[in-house]
Amino acid sequence: MTGLETTPLWKPSGSPQSENCIENGHVIRSPIQSSNGGFITSNNGGGGGGNVVMKCTLYLLKSVNFRRCVAALVLVTVLLICYYTSVVNSPFPNFIHRDTRPSPLVNCRMINGKVPLEGSTAPDHRSEARLRIDPKVLVFVETTYSRLGRDIAELLVYNRIKYKIEVAGKSLPVLTNLDKGRYGVIVFENFDKYLHMDKWNRELLDKYCREYSVGIVGFISASEETLVGAQLRGFPIYIHTNLRLRDASLNPLSPILRLTRAGDTAWGALPGSDWAVFQHNHSTYEPLEWAQRNTLDYPTDGIVQPPLATVVQDHGKFDGIQRVLFGASLRFWLHRLLFLDALSYLSHGQLSLSLNRMLLVDIDDIFVGERGTRLKPDDVQALIVTQKRLASLVPGFKFNLGFSGKYFHHGNHDENLGDDMLLRNVDQFNWFSHMWNHQQPHLYDNLTNLVSDMMLNKEFARDKGIPVDSGYSVSPHHSGVYPAHELLYMAWKKVWDIKVTSTEEYPHLRPARLRRGFIHRNIMVLPRQTCGLFTHTMYIDRYPGGREKLDESIQGGELFQTIVYNPINIFMTHMSNYGSDRLALYTFESVIKFLQCWTNLKLTSAPPLQLGETYFKLHPDEVDPVWGNPCDDVRHIKIWSRNKSCESLPRFLVIGPQKTGTTALYTFLSMHPSIASNLPNPDTFEEIQFFNGINYYRGLDWYMNFFPVQSNGSAKYMFEKSATYFDGDFVPKRAHALLPKAKIIMILISPAKRAYSWYEHIKAHGDLIANNHTFYQVITASDSAPRALKDLRNRCLNPGKYAQHMERWLAYYSAQQLHIIDGEQLKSNPVEVMMELQRFLKITPTFDYSSHLRYDAKKGFYCQVVGETRNKCLGKSKGRQYPPMDERSQKILQRYYLSHNTALVKLLKKLGSRPVPQWLKDDLSTTS
Fold first, then answer.
1. What is the pLDDT of residue 237?
2. Is the pLDDT of residue 298 over 80?
3. Does residue 84 carry a pLDDT above 60?
4. Would you say residue 290 has pLDDT above 50?
5. Predicted pLDDT of residue 860
C-alpha cells in the first residue's frame, strides 16, 4: 500500500452530477455526466480528464469566444500535468508529503481474542535427572566451517549456553566426570552422522544417554539426492526431502513448548527448498511443527492437503532415548525458538532460559535535529498515546528521553510548539542527560571544560523542570564510554552522579550477539541494542529494503530475536524515528504484539538503574572490563582520545615468573638502542603490573601513560616486564585483548629452586610469616593454616606449575608468539641468550652484547660494561647467596613437582624446537 489517493488537485465548480466549463465568469454546464461528481479518473492519471477536455472543446467551439477556450485548455493541461507528476511520478518527493504511516498490525488469533492468552502456559521442564548432568551442550559438526554448525554455536553463544564442538567421526570425548554427566544434551548437525557411527562409539553414546537421561537433537541435512519415503536407519520413521513448504504451525499440546507459544500460523513460504518432512508408524513420535506444501510448486486443484510434520519429538518409547528431529536448519526463525525449547526439555531444565525480559527504549537527541525533521504537537500526542498502549502490554513502560539543551527551540514554529508540549508533559516520560552541545566527550582534553558543558545541560534541566536524578546518561555517538575516556567518567560522577550508562561498542559493534556489559569507576555500562531504525529513518518508503525489510526484523527477525535472547534490552532510537511516519511507534508496538503471539516471555520495564542492578546479578562474571585495542576497530579509533596512539603500545611482554632472572633480562633489554621499556611505576618500580591487579581497573588511558609516543618520531620496540603476569588467571585473556600480536617472553628455572628463592627473598625483606616459619613449614602448610601462611605457601609453590600456566597462555597466543628462556643459561651465558632473543623478535640491526656484558666475579653473574675495568651490576638484593635448602624440603618439592615437570616435558616436545633444559632433566632424574 502506498496510501496515495486519486482525488484530483482541481475540481470543476457546479453540480456534482455534471462536468462544467467556464466562460466569461459563467458556468457552462456540460451534457457529459460524471460518475464521481468531478473528473472521471482513470489508471493512466489523466484519461478521464482528457475526455472532459474534449467535450468542453467541442462545446466551446460552437460558441464565438475561441481565445478563451484555448486559455481554458492550457489551464486544464497544466493542472493535469501537475496532478500526474505529483501523485504518480513526482520528481520532487521532498516537497510533497505522503501520508504513509504504517499502523501496527499483527494477525494473531491469541491477540485478536480468538484464543485466550492465558490458554498457553510455560511448563517447568525440571526433573530429578537434571541433578546428574551439567548444563553444557555437546555439538557434533561435519566440519569446523559448516554453516549449520556455526549457526548452532552462534545461537548458544547468544544465549550464554556452554558448549563443546566435536567433529563427527572422531573418537568421543569423555562423557562423564565421576558420577555426573558432562553434557546435558547431544546435538548432531547432521543426524545421519549419528545413524552411521561406528558400533563402539554408538553403543557408548547411547548407553550414556540412557543412563543419564540425556536427549539428542538432530537435523536432517540437505543433500543433492531427493529421498521419498526413506527410512531412517534402525527407526520406524520415514523422511521425504528437498521440499518447498509454507504456512508453519505448532502443536499447542507439545510438552516441549516453553519459551515458544503456539500463537498462530506463520503464513507464507518457508525459507529454502531443502525441507524434510517425517512420517511414522510408532507411538513414540509426536509432531512438534507442521507445514503445507507450497501450492505454487505443487498445485492441489483446491483439494485440502494434510499437514506435513517438519519437526518431531521422539518420546523414547522405542529405544529409551528422547530426541527432537528437525527437518530443516535454523534459517527459519521459529526453529531457533524450538531448538532452545528442545535443549530445555531434553536437559530436564538444566538449559532452561529465564522467561523474564526487561525492556527500555531510549530516544536520543530529543531536541536535536534539523528543521523539518523534529517533533510537532501531534507527534508528541501520538508518543503519549502509544506509550499508554505499550504500558498496558509491558508493565512500567515509559519512553526514556535524552536531551541536549542547547538545541531547544531550534525548529520551525510547529516544531517549537512540539518542544513546549514535551515540557508540559515532562512527568509522562523518563529523562536522561546528553551533552549540552551534543559534542563527543572524547574531544575534550580538559576536565574543567567537560564539566562546564555538563553543567549547562543541568542548569537547562532545572530551569525547564526536567528531572536530574535518574543516575543515567548516554554519550553522543557512544564517545568516551568504550574505549573509555577517563575524563568522561570523572565528569559524569562530578556533575550528574551517574551510576549507569549504555553503549553498543563493547567489546565491538558487530556481532551484536557478543555485546556485553562491564563496570568502570563504579559506573555500570550496559549493552545497548538497535531496533533497525537509524537517525535518518523518517519515512517508510525510504527505509532500506522497504517496509518488507522492517517487518521481517519485527516478525521473527533480528529485532524479535534480540529481545528473545537478551534478558535486559536497552534500545537506541532517535527523535526523527517518532516524527514523520513515526516508525519507532510502529516498530515497538508491532514487535511486542508479535512476541505475545509467539512466546511466553514476560515483558516488563524499569528505570536504567534497576536494569543495571538486575543485569549484573544475572551476569556477575561481566563486572570486570576487558580492554581491547582501539586501533583494531575503525569505529573505536573515531571515538578514542585524540592524544593516544597505538604505536606506543608494547610489542612484547616479559611475563616472569618471579625469581627466575626477569630483572636481569629487563636490564639487558634496556641496553639495546632499538628497545625501550615503559616509564617506571612509582609504586612498583620498573613493573607496571597492569594486567593482573587493581591497576587494570584504572583503565587503558592509565596504562598508555607509561608508553609515551617517542618525541623524535623513532619507532622503538616497546616492551613491558611484569614478573607476576606468568601465573595470573586473567592475565592471558586481558593481555591478548589489548595486545593480540605481541610476543611473549618467559624464563624458567627449576621450580623447586624458584620456590626456595622466593621464600628467601621475602624473608630478607622482613616478611613476618617467612621470618617466623621455616621453608619446610611454609611448603607443607595445610589448608586449615592461617590465611597469611597459606598465601605464602601458594606464592612459593603455584608459579612453579609451569605447564599449567603455559597452557593458559597458549589458549590465547600461538606457539610462534611464545619464547622460552632457560634461566640457568641466561645466568651463565647471557650473550648467546640475548642474540637468540633478538632473532626471535626480528630486531635489526643486531646489538652485540659480547662487548657490553662482562662477568663480575664479585657478584657472581654478568653485569653491564661501563668502563675498561668498571661494571654496572644489579642492586644488593640481586645475586644474594642463600643457605642451601634442607634435604626434607628438597624431597617434598621433588615429589610435588614430579607431575608438573613431566607435563612440561610433554608440552615442550609438543611445541617443537624447544630443547628440554638441563635443570629439568636433572629434576626428573633425581626424583626417579
1. 97
2. no
3. no
4. yes
5. 78
* Cα–Cα distance for residue pair 144/146, rounded to 1 Å: 6
Retrieve residue 893's grid coordinates.
Answer: 618439592
Q: Is the pLDDT of residue 48 over 60?
A: no
Q: What is the pLDDT of residue 535?
A: 85
Helix (H) or strand (E) holding 509: none
Grid cell of 917 as nine digits = 633444559
CA-based angle 555:556:562, to the nearest 5? 115
Q: Output the pLDDT for position 422.
A: 98
Sign of CA dihedral 902, 904, 905, 909: positive
589 is written with which cell numbers? Answer: 508496538
Question: Could you tell me if 444 and 482 are in contact, meaning their C-beta atoms sit under 8 angstroms apart?
Answer: no
Please report, as a single letter, which amino acid is at residue 12. Answer: P
Whole-number pLDDT of residue 879: 59
C-alpha dihedral sign at 253, 259, 262, 268: negative
Q: Looking at residue 88, what is its pLDDT?
A: 40
C-alpha cell at 229: 519415503
Residue 128 parent element (H or E): none
Residue 818 near residue 910 (C-beta atoms within 8 A): no
Per the omega criterion (within 30 degrees of 0), is the bond before 116 cis? no
Q: For residue 845, how many other CB atoms are within 10 A of its CB?
A: 8
Long-range contacts at 76-85 (CB < 8 A, ≥ 24 apart): 76/49, 76/52, 77/53, 79/9, 79/10, 80/46, 80/49, 80/50, 82/9, 83/8, 83/9, 83/10, 83/45, 83/46, 83/49, 84/45, 84/46
The residue ranges of DSSP E strands in 758-825, in sequence order, are 818-822
Catalytic annotation, pick one of 136, 659, 721, 753: 659
pLDDT at position 65, please?
61
Q: Which three cell numbers stand for residue 23?
A: 466562460
Residue 331 has pLDDT above 90, yes or no: yes
What mean pLDDT comes out for the span 426-443?
96
Residue 725: exposure state from Cβ atoms within 10 A (0-12, 13-18, ≥19): buried
Q: What is the pLDDT of residues 650-701, one digit of tens each?
A: 999 999 999 999 999 999 999 999 999 999 888 877 799 999 989 999 999 9
Residue with cell 549504555: 502
Residue type, 458: K
Task: Mark whether 659 is an active-site residue.
Answer: yes
- Counting beta carbons within 10 angstroms of the beta carbon of residue 546, is it exposed (0 to 12), middle (13 to 18) or buried (19 or more)? exposed
Contact status, residue 852 vs residue 671, Cβ threshold 8 Å? yes
Would you state the pLDDT for residue 61? 45
Q: What backbone torsions phi and psi does residue 561 show, to the nearest 5 degrees?
A: -70, -30
- Give the residue from 731, 739, 749, 703 showing the smallest Cα distance to 817: 739
Question: Quick one: pLDDT at residue 706?
Answer: 92
Tell me phi and psi for residue 769, to 5 degrees: -65, -45
Measured from the Cβ of residue 124, the count of other Cβ atoms closer than 10 Å reads 10
Phi/psi zone of residue 803: left (φ > 0), alpha (ψ -120 to 50 degrees), beta?
A: alpha
Report which of residues 408 and 679 the model is more confident about: 408
DSSP assignment of 386-405 equals: HHHHHHHHSTT---EEEE-G
**Higher per-residue pLDDT: 4 or 557:** 557
- Give the three cell numbers for residue 3: 496510501
Cell of 595: 512476541
**864 three-state secondary structure:** strand
CA distance 212 to 350: 13
